[in-house]
Design brief:
- The protein is of the alpha/beta class.
- It has 19 helices and 23 strands.
- The chain has a 6-stranded antiparallel sheet with strand order 7-6-11-10-9-8. A 5-stranded parallel sheet has the order 2-1-3-4-5. It has a 5-stranded mixed sheet with strand order 13-15-16-18-17.
- Strand 19, helix 15 and strand 20 form a beta-alpha-beta unit.
- The longest helix is centred in the middle third of the chain and has 75 residues.
- It is elongated.
- The two termini are 38 Å apart.
């Protein structure tokens, strides 16, 4: 996780009385979190604020009074529960055990994770990342609550300014939501039919002028599921005397049709009633107007509720539509390409089986080659998908951009036709970056091929490098890698879609639609960005921006011969997939190694203790229960110099090899050929032998 993913500059607070602990923790979190270290709980308590993301406390900080710390936590908003990571030990420098250290925290410290020292940086960062995600969800909830409060505020303003009394009540006739006029008419907030103390204040009449029983009042009828409109009441007030009101009420139902309450509208008709009593000839016209107004008000209330519900449904439909469109496009492309590749694999294997069954083994090599080619294409497709989704495993190393481009010069020149002029414009400053060189080479090659295809009638294709210095002397600059062509360009209508997987403007069969998406994913995963500038009929410029790296030349690696056959070395193979475990076991056994297999970490630990000697741990990363990385940590506690070779098809924690791998560890990405596996095993065992490890 990069620090740029954390919004609003939230801070990780550290309370560590010992300066060495504080410095070590700040070093671990450097580059990933904004930290602030303090030597006491009192200083930490003063620093706690709404933007505090996480608190890390060593057990030595709990020796003092924790009252101020508890008070600071109590002052946090209701939505806020700051995660606390307590670094303790079973018998630490304070002389207390972990349970005692935990009990020293105030009761208001609700979200506490206790980690026992010593622990690895990877374990600490993993715990911090999980706690940080939990904190981010709290901030998301805060934002949603604020949005809801704003929406309610707007509804409240509308309700407060409607020139009639409007109220929503529960099944007992008690007001839940009402405006000032409604509360003026019903100061106790209860329907007259439900409150005997108000019976004298409200006298209802039917159309014939007969006095109504309280059970026939509009509110009471609505709570029974009936609609009542335009019921006239003579309302008595000790301060204002008698006046006339017209009341309408409608029932409110839940999704199952059950009554949950009612809505009522109270209109002041005092003047109208007196005019009616004075000018009875206008009675019919006035009644029509009142009924129309009542219907309008009822429609307003229903429309408000309908619009609110419809907006929520529309937003959900829109989100679902976008999601299903993306999923449909992705799965459709994957299914199409994988089905073609699997057809080649299955068909070739079926032909081999048929030939062998008939005793005709001659010529099966070409079917084996076809199956291998299709399988390799499928592996390449998964790598491109992982690149787009930023889930591929990257081996970042310091690289000279100019040297990398020059090394590709012959290959790039051979990829373009004679009618297309290929130029190189390299920066005189020789910029360096930290990147997976193989993936960057593939990205440049993909972009050059795309530029070639976009310039069928000839023109110029330029590969250039530039260094953009930072305005701050101590900060690194940006390295630009540009591939520019003078071809047909990209229409503005599809420019935003060119990095989507399986999107292509090429004819069917001439492109997978994964080239640019792979480049985009690789650049994003390498903490860079990809810009595309195109003008139809003039050309396209694709720019890769990557952070500058301090110039350093890697050590020269001299090629050395590796003997692939083993000499009885002991290998502990851990793999939960039966087929993969069987194949790897057979290959290593055929090469002369003594192979012991295990299906999970627990079985592997038992095998390790029962074996007299283990020369290499070969384990899958994604194991059930304890994963391969955790297994390696456990075993290396007993054998610190034991080489470990990880196998992974996809493991989120292994995407950045520099952070994932420890001493004497290497990573091999699935799928791989058996020759590659044999060579990697032999190389690691050879290095162990050269080092004179026992």
């Amino acid at each position: 996780m990069s620090s740029k993913h954390h919004t609003e500059n939230r801070t990780l607070l550290i309370a560590a009385p010992f300066k060495g602990d504080a410095l070590s923790l700040e070093k671990v979190f450097a580059g990933q979190y904004t930290t602030k270290a303090m030597q006491s709980l009192a200083s930490l308590s003063q620093a706690i604020g709404e933007q505090t993301g996480l608190i890390v406390i060593t057990e030595e900080a709990l020796v003092t009074d924790v009252t101020c710390f508890g008070q600071a936590l109590d002052q946090q908003p209701a939505w806020s529960e700051i995660p606390i990571i307590l670094l303790a030990s079973s018998q630490g420098r304070s002389g207390r055990d972990t349970d005692l250290a935990r009990r020293r925290l105030p009761q208001s410290a609700g979200h506490v994770v206790v980690l026992e020292r010593p622990l690895s940086s990877a374990s600490l960062l993993s715990t911090v990342a999980a706690a940080w995600r939990s904190r981010e969800r709290q901030f998301d909830m805060r934002d949603r609550l604020a949005e809801l409060a704003a929406e309610r505020g707007r509804m409240h303003i509308l309700l407060e300014n409607v020139p009639v009394g409007i109220g929503f009540m529960d099944k007992q006739g008690r007001s839940l939501i009402s405006n000032p006029l409604y509360r003026q008419y019903l100061p106790r907030g209860v329907l007259p039919s439900k409150d005997p103390t108000q019976e004298h204040a409200w006298v209802g009449q039917d159309a014939q002028g007969n006095t109504l029983e309280p059970a026939m009042y509009p509110g009471a009828m609505a709570l029974r599921g009936e609609t009542a409109t335009g019921v006239e009441f003579r309302h008595h007030s000790d301060t204002e005397g008698d006046s006339w009101r017209r009341v309408s009420a409608v029932p409110l139902f839940d999704q199952t049709g059950g009554i949950i309450g009612a809505a009522a509208v109270i209109v002041d008709i005092n003047e109208e009633k007196h005019a009616e009593l004075s000018l009875r000839r206008f009675n019919e016209e006035l009644e029509i107007q009142v009924q129309a107004r009542t219907r309008e008000l009822k429609a307003v209330i229903e429309q408000l509720k309908k619009e609110s519900d419809e907006r929520l449904r529309a937003e959900e439909r829109l989100r679902q539509s976008f999601k299903m469109e993306a999923v449909g496009q992705l799965t459709g492309g994957i299914a199409h390409d994988f089905n073609n590749m699997l057809t080649g694999v299955i068909g070739s294997l079926d032909l081999i089986k048929m030939r062998l069954a008939k005793g005709r083994p001659e010529g099966i090599e070409r079917f084996m080659e076809a199956a291998t080619t299709s399988a390799q294409r499928a592996a390449s497709l998964t790598q491109r998908l992982l690149a787009f989704s930023r889930r591929q495993s990257l081996n970042a190393q310091p690289v000279s951009v100019n040297q990398l481009v020059l090394a590709l010069q012959d290959l790039l020149q051979g990829s373009v036709p004679e009618h297309l002029t290929l130029k190189f414009d390299l920066s005189p400053e020789d910029p360096w970056i930290s990147v997976d060189a193989n993936q960057l080479e593939n990205a440049i090659l993909n972009l050059v091929i795309n530029a070639r295809d976009a310039t069928p009638s000839g023109g110029t294709l330029t590969v250039s490098t530039r260094l953009e210095r930072s305005d701050t002397p101590d900060e690194p600059g940006n390295v630009h890698i540009q591939i520019a062509d003078t071809g047909c360009g990209i229409p503005s209508s599809v420019l935003d879609k060119v990095t989507e997987p399986f999107f292509t403007t090429k004819p069917i069969g001439q492109g997978t639609g994964l080239g640019l998406s792979m480049v985009y994913g690789f650049v994003k995963q390498s903490h860079g960005r990809l810009d595309i500038d195109s003008t139809p009929d003039l050309g396209t410029t694709v720019s890769i921006f990557l952070p500058e790296h301090a110039r350093e030349k890697p050590a020269e690696l001299l090629p050395k011969a590796v003997t692939l056959s083993g000499q009885g070395q002991s290998i502990l193979l851990v793999e939960d997939d039966d087929s993969v475990r069987l194949i790897n076991q057979e290959v290593l056994s055929e090469l002369g190694y003594a192979v012991t297999v295990a299906r999970d970490a627990e079985e592997a630990i038992r095998c390790f203790h029962s074996l007299g000697k283990v020369d290499l741990l070969l384990t899958d990363v994604g194991l059930p229960g304890m994963n391969g990385r955790q297994l390696a940590e456990v075993i290396q506690q007993k054998a610190p110099r034991l080489p470990v070779l990880f196998l992974t098809g996809y493991a989120k924690g292994a995407m950045d090899r520099a952070d994932f791998l420890g001493p004497n560890m290497q990573l091999l990405t699935k799928p791989f050929s058996l020759d590659v596996l044999a060579g990697r095993v032999a190389d690691m065992l050879g290095r162990r032998a050269e080092a004179g490890a026992p």
